[in-house]
Write a structure and sequence with these properties.
membrane; 75% helix; HemX; mainly alpha; rod-shaped; transmembrane helix; coiled coil
C-alpha cells in the first residue's frame, strides 16, 4: 500500500500556518526549521543530502589540496636548500679540483726532476761500479803477482796461499764467478802441496848459529880431562905403583894406531875465533840455500858443519850434542817441492780487466 501524502495545510497570505488545536507552542526558530523539513519531499531531501556530501567532499578535497600544496612547498624548499648545498659543494669540489690540478702539476714536475736525478745517479753508480770493478781487478792482479813471486823466488807456499785467498775474497760479485773459480782451482793445488815450514827451519838454524860461540872445543875437553886425572890420582902403595909402571912400559912396547885418522891440532885463540866464524858462515850459507830452495847446497853446508862440530868441538857436551842433533834433523829435511803454475789465473784476471776497460769506454 502506498501511503498517501497529505498536502500541507495551506498557509495564509502572510505565509503562516494555521495553528492546530492542542499543539503546544514551540520556539520560533525550531518551528520554522521543522516547518521547512515538513515541506521537503524525499527527492529534495536526497538532493540536499547529496549537496551536503558534495560540499563535505569539496571541503575535504580542498583541505587535502592545501595540505598537498603545503607539503609540495615544503619539499620544494628542501630541494632548493639541497640544491644550494649541492651548488656550494660543487663550487668547493671545483676549487678542490683546481687546487689538486695545481698540486698534480707540481708533483709531475717533481717526478720529472726525480727521474732526471735518478738517471744521473744511475749513470754515476755505473761509473762508480765500473771504477770499483777496475780497482778490485787491479788489486787481484797485484795479489796474484805477489803469490807468483813467492812461489818462484822463495817457494813460500804459505805466503802465496794467503795472497791468493785475499785475491779470491775480492771477487764476490756474480760477474767474477769465472775468475773466482779459476783462482779456487789454483788454491786447491797449493793446499795439496806438502808443508815445508821454512820459517821454522830458518829459526832452528839461527838457534844453532847463536850457540856456536859458547860450544866447548874438543881440545879444551881433552886438556881438562888430563888435569882431572892427574889431580884425582890417589897415593898408591909401593907394589901397586910398581905394577902400574910396568904396565905403562908394556903399553909402549906394542902400539896400534889408526893411520887414517888425523890428529886434532891444537888451535890458538885466533884460530879458534876463525873456526867459530867459519862455522857460522857455513850455517848462514845453508840458510841462503834454504831460502833459494837449493837443496844440494843446503845438505852440503849442513854436512860440512856436522863434520866440523864432530872434529873440533866436544860433541859429548850437552850444547854441542844438541847442535849436532839439530843439524842432523835439518839435513834430512826436504826443502824442494814442485811448485804449481798459477800464471793461468793471473792471465785470466789481466785479460778480463783489459776487456772490461774497453767495454767501459
Amino acid at each position: 500500500m502506498s501511503e498517501s501524502v497529505q498536502p500541507p495545510p495551506s498557509a495564509d497570505k502572510t505565509g503562516a500556518l494555521p495553528e492546530t488545536a492542542g499543539t503546544p507552542q514551540q520556539p520560533a526558530g525550531g518551528h520554522r526549521l521543522a516547518d521547512l523539513f515538513s515541506r521537503l519531499t524525499l527527492t529534495q531531501l536526497t538532493l540536499l543530502v547529496l549537496v551536503v556530501i558534495f560540499i563535505w567532499q569539496w571541503l575535504d578535497a580542498h583541505t587535502q589540496l592545501n595540505q598537498t600544496q603545503q607539503e609540495v612547498a615544503r619539499r620544494l624548499s628542501e630541494v632548493e636548500a639541497a640544491n644550494k648545498a649541492n651548488q656550494m659543494l660543487l663550487a668547493q669540489n671545483q676549487e678542490l679540483v683546481r687546487e689538486l690540478g695545481g698540486k698534480l702539476g707540481l708533483v709531475e714536475s717533481k717526478y720529472a726532476e726525480t727521474q732526471n736525478q735518478r738517471a744521473a745517479l744511475e749513470a754515476l753508480y755505473q761509473e762508480m761500479s765500473s771504477s770499483r770493478d777496475q780497482t778490485a781487478l787491479a788489486e787481484v792482479e797485484q795479489m796474484l803477482l805477489i803469490a807468483g813471486q813467492q812461489l818462484q823466488l822463495s817457494s813460500n807456499v804459505k805466503a802465496a796461499l794467503i795472497a791468493m785467498q785475499q785475491a779470491e775474497s775480492r771477487l764476490q760479485r756474480p760477474a767474477f764467478a769465472g775468475l773466482k773459480k779459476r783462482i779456487d782451482q789454483d788454491i786447491d793445488k797449493l793446499r795439496a802441496l806438502p808443508n815445508i815450514d821454512v820459517p821454522a827451519i830458518n829459526l832452528r838454524l839461527d838457534g844453532v848459529i847463536g850457540m856456536i860461540d859458547s860450544l866447548p872445543l874438543a881440545q879444551d875437553a881433552h886438556i881438562q880431562a888430563q888435569k882431572s886425572a892427574a889431580v884425582a890420582e890417589p897415593v898408591e902403595g909401593v907394589w901397586k905403583r910398581f905394577w902400574s909402571e910396568v904396565w905403562q912400559e908394556a903399553k909402549y912396547l906394542v902400539r896400534i894406531e889408526n893411520t887414517e885418522r888425523q890428529e886434532m891440532p891444537l888451535l890458538s885463540p885466533t884460530q879458534t875465533f876463525f873456526l867459530r866464524e867459519n862455522l857460522k858462515l857455513r850455517l848462514l850459507s845453508a840458510r841462503m840455500a834454504l831460502l833459494t830452495r837449493d837443496e844440494v847446497s843446503f845438505r852440503r853446508d849442513l854436512k860440512t858443519s856436522q863434520e866440523w862440530l864432530k872434529r873440533y868441538f866436544d860433541v859429548k857436551a850437552a850444547d854441542s850434542a844438541q847442535a849436532f842433533a839439530t843439524l842432523q834433523k835439518l839435513a834430512a829435511s826436504n826443502i824442494v817441492i814442485d811448485m804449481p803454475d798459477i800464471s793461468g789465473s793471473l792471465e785470466a784476471v789481466r785479460n778480463y780487466r783489459i776487456s772490461h776497460e774497453r767495454g767501459a769506454r
